[in-house]
Amino acid sequence: VEVGHYVSVLGLGAKPSDVRFHGEGKLGPYAKALDQRPTGAGSLNTFWRSVENLRLATKEMIWGASQAAPLRRLQIDGQLWLFDYASV
Question: Residue 24 — φ and ψ, nearest 5°?
Fold first, then answer.
């Protein structure tokens, strides 16, 4: 699930483990860098999005965001990448 500008993904359970994203080899909610040119801005223009109150039972989560992009109350079973490694 790619999380775009002005989008929030909210788990509506009482606790993060009540709502679960799962899938073998899938990302779950993610935000990639918008400008992936070698000399571009990368993640510096990726903002105004959020993911809250859920469990990610996926291999990895990519959150290449600059500002105004919180991750709150998450249980992450795999790897969390706080940058878009594909554009490095």
Answer: -70, 120
